[in-house]
Design brief:
- With 394 residues, the protein is of the alpha/beta class.
- Helices cover 42% and strands 15% of the residues.
- The protein is built from 14 helices and 13 strands.
- The strands form two sheets. It has a seven-stranded parallel β-sheet with strand order 3-2-1-4-5-6-7, with helices on both faces. The chain has a six-stranded parallel β-sheet with strand order 10-9-8-11-12-13, with helices on both faces.
- Helix 1 packs across helix 14.
């Protein structure tokens, strides 16, 4: 049976959770379901969003300027009307999660809340407590089902936020390596020429918004801690400040000056050529404090880029440290420094072997085909079970 699905993502930018949302929306559409996508944040140019891809796939996209307020009975009536005409509501970002979960409860329309990251709340003490309370209420009580991108995230929701285990399912993010343009073999020369980087320096790339979560400050401290032991290297940091995060971005720039590593760091801002940067790199580094299951790591695997990441959460299942890539303790600049020195001293052939092994790990464990099939099956199951329950509209 075909179903009417209403998907929401507060911010439709073309990376992270919204990118996964687009993958799943397209999979639902291909499975014969009617999918509509709503969002609030307006991003220009639109080419930096998932909107063109969704429209090209035949999925209707609608901007609702008050989406995040839809939980109020008198606000965002368009969303509430669309929700009332749907078989399932799917939410993928925390900014509009409260709206989706509460409208689901109020209208008795089932909902699937997708949690792509470990819950972490910012602001002053009162603000953090309020955000935590709203999050817990909505994932534990108002949501029909909760999908987590990793078992680590699921364990946190069950153990710290009292989400009933029977509500939780785990569907790992996946990536289709076939949609990535083939390597040209000229990426390294082009990127080095763009930034006047000499051939004897290693290229280390990070992809991620400038936000405390992503641990750029930890990386800067690690570069400084490595000192002269670190082989000549340049660190390319591709990402723009998180919304409202200009102060943190300025802090990072100042920190690079204070630690004496500014000459080793290139702040690239937003880039839409992440795959090209990864192919040019000798190493991809992810110094995050917390994550769910980061797409950037999957992209590094896909491009055969050796990957060094912090233990931001539970490790990848069956991941062999030192074979598929490397893990290091999070928020520990000294240990990250030691591992950077060790890895960047490896010869190119050894690094290529690690990159190839990471690529094989992706192909065997984290394919988009598998995750999309599991997601579509979860959607159908959620609707079917809700229709048999008295709590939901039939």
């Amino acid at each position: 049976m075909n179903h009417k699905i209403l998907m929401s993502s507060f911010n439709p930018h073309a990376y992270g959770a919204p990118r996964v949302t687009a993958d799943y929306a397209c999979a639902l559409h291909d499975a014969g379901h009617q999918v509509r996508f709503v969002y609030q944040a307006e991003i220009q140019p639109e080419s930096h969003t998932i909107l063109p891809r969704l429209r090209q796939h035949g999925i209707e996209t609608i901007r609702l300027s008050d989406l995040a307020s839809a939980y109020l009975p008198w606000a965002c009536r368009t969303f509430r009307s669309m929700a009332n005409d749907s078989d399932l509501l799917i939410n993928t970002q925390r900014r509009d999660m409260v709206s989706t979960a509460m409208v689901s409860k109020q209208l008795r329309v089932p909902s699937l809340i997708c949690v792509h990251n470990q819950p972490n709340f910012q602001g002053n003490g009162i603000s953090r407590r309020l955000k935590r309370m709203l999050f817990q209420r909505n994932v534990s009580t108002n949501a029909t089902r909760v999908m987590c991108v990793s078992q680590g995230v699921a364990d946190i929701l069950i153990g710290q936020f009292a989400v009933p285990p029977e509500k939780v399912t785990v569907i790992a993010n996946g990536l289709d390596v076939n949609v990535i343009a083939p390597a040209t073999g000229t990426e390294a020369a082009e990127v080095r020429a763009e930034f006047a980087i000499p051939s004897h320096e290693r290229l280390v790339v990070n992809l991620g918004r400038l936000d405390r979560q992503k641990g750029h400050d930890v990386l800067l401290h690690a570069i400084a801690a490595a000192g002269n032991s670190l082989p000549p290297a340049r660190f390319l940091l591709a990402g723009s400040p998180a919304p409202g995060g200009e102060a943190w971005s300025e802090h990072l720039h100042q920190l690079s000056q204070q630690r004496g590593v500014a000459h080793k760091v290139i702040w690239m801002g937003f880039r839409n050529d992440g795959h090209r940067l990864l192919r040019a790199a000798d190493l991809f580094v992810l110094p995050s404090r917390w994550e769910g299951l980061p797409i950037a790591v999957l992209e590094a695997f896909a491009t055969m880029t050796p990957t060094l990441m912090t233990e931001y959460g539970r490790r990848f299942p069956s991941f062999d440290d030192g074979v598929h890539g490397w893990y290091v303790e999070k928020e520990n600049p000294e240990k990250l420094a030691l591992k950077l020195v060790e890895v960047l001293q490896m010869n190119s052939a050894a690094l290529q072997t690690i990159g190839f092994a990471g690529h094989q790990y992706l192909r065997e464990n984290l394919t988009l085909r598998r995750s999309s099939q599991n997601f579509v099956a979860e959607v159908v199951r959620t609707i079917s079970e809700a229709r048999s329950a008295t709590a939901y509209r039939r």
